[in-house]
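Task 17 of the worksheet. Students: predict the tertiary structure of the chain below and write it out as structure tokens. Keep your answer in the requested format; marks are given for formatting as well as content.
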Amino acid sequence: MNARFVLFETSHPGNIGAAARALRVMDWHELVLVRPHAFPHADATAMAAGADDILEGARVCETLEEALAGAGIVFGTSARRRRLDWPEQNARQAGAFAAASGEPVAFLFGRERTGLTNEELDACHYLLHVPTAADYGSLNLAQAVQIVAYELRMATLAHPEPAPPEEPMPAHEDMARFYEHLESSLTDIGFLDPDNPRLLMRRLRRFFARSRPSALELNILRGILKAAQWPERDTAAWRRARDSRTRPRGGTISERNDQE
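Model answer:
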């Protein structure tokens, strides 16, 4: 299974080493670090307890987009609920969903003290949480990685050969480009005020995360957006060009309807 574990702006190098150990013991090997405060570091090596191959193979990225490139499903971990609901799964549900999907998956873990911001969660399909005691929900970063890695391993053992998706699914960067296109289109047609966007784009991201369009469906949506951005002064010309390309024998559909 293609699974990566992404640590975002990790403060303590010992946590990177402990996370590497957690991955190695569960037989996961892809660790990605986004702007770690100190890496490589002796503390990371010490806490890895022999999982040196994971540390040596760890990829360091400057941006979240680079770290998530190619992922079909992204889970963002969070210990707290958000004002705007994200589609949520607990660690066991996320492991089962990822193992059965047959898609490349990424698990994103935030900063030790503050976690992930809402803007960073915008890059995720689902919010992943670990049910803890109501009065004490503090999990160490490596502990959280260990729980998710374990649940993913158990689910993978239960689904050793997941069925491939019926249609190819878009990668993370394809969805990112779609959201940029969607925002520019909504701004062009006057539906979105860039100076007062409120939560519109975040709600639309949540909507598409739930619906999970295929790569073909995403291309259709982008075609619709492109058509919606056609300058108003050229609308009639565009329609004439369209009709000339799609004119059936005996006239356009609308012309034939008028004749009938």
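Marker's comment: Residues 172-259 form a domain with the Helicase, Ruva Protein; domain 3 fold (CATH 1.10.8.590). Confidence is low (pLDDT under 50) at residues 247-260.
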